[in-house]
Amino acid sequence: MLVSNHERIQIAGAGPAGLAAAITLAHAGKKVMVHEARSNVGWRFKRDFQGLENWTTKQDVLQVFKDSGLTTDFDYLPCNSGVLFDNVGHRHDINSEAPIFYLIERGPMPGSLDYALLTQAQQLGVEVRFNSRVKNLPYPAILATGPKAADALAVGYHFDTDMDDGYWVICDDKLAPGGYAYLLIWNGRGTIKSCMFADFSQSKLYAQRTVEAFQKRMGLEMKDPVAHSGVGNFYIPTRAYAGKRPIVGEQAGFQDTLWGFGMRHAIHSGILAAQSIQNGTSYDVLWKKNIKGSLKASVVNRALFELLGNRGYRWFFKHLARRKDVRKYLYRQYHPTAIKSLFYPWAKSRVLSFRKELACDHVDCDCVQDCSKCG
Asked: What confidence score (pLDDT) does residue 352 get?
């Protein structure tokens, strides 16, 4: 159903997915209002460092942003090389011709991804209402309110430091069950986290073990550490609609199931949802064509990764370190193949999500969260 330029489109959520949708619609001359429940963008991240992955397209992610009409006016650190440690402390150096990912900052301050997208949206005439927690939002609208379950949990600290810039990863189930521990340093600030996929009740213990491991391996120095945690959910929906309204980002479950690099999926889904409203096309057709293959590949990757265990991680790191260009290798691993399609039903049965299907078939549904008409 086409929406006229005089009809206002509302968006619930001012994360990257919601703002990308708003910017896309504003470029097309649409009137847009974004509702954000918090007092500013990026509230839950509190200056967290995250990686904007650069391997799911051959084209650099920053160029993809530009081609999509999105700003790149945020601070970033290209990461072409890094260090991986296995559970026995063996070091494996990895390298890439182009950045494997870009280190970025999340939060409401200038220089962050969130602030840059907000500024662009407002400059294009998008109205953003903060402290606006809406329960109902009739069509035309887009739902982008973030994760609805904890399938992965990252627990650790933000801190100041005199250490040099870089990133380091440890795979050890004693530090991060089924996941990985990481240390990110940039411009005198750092983030250290245990990103775990199981045993959340022991998260504080895993965070402490992660700190101790990086102190031993890297001589970690933390000044004024502040505890921080975040969750992610992973899900491939049957359909990503609530009534006639597209569901985008982590509210839909769009996330990298292997390592949690989900910002690009979130942003891409926001753009596709905006295009579906703008052009009167099916959002389900668009996201399944553009995103679903990579999502399914990441589920297979996650299932295989969980089978490895500590001994398998050591083999995997040795394998990565022998690669001349890790970015090209990851590009191949994140794309659907006949073999991955064959393995997908098995992988789907092993990788269970706590998130439930949020899609709603009621055409007149206007609920922002779970549909009251569906019980």
From this structure: 84
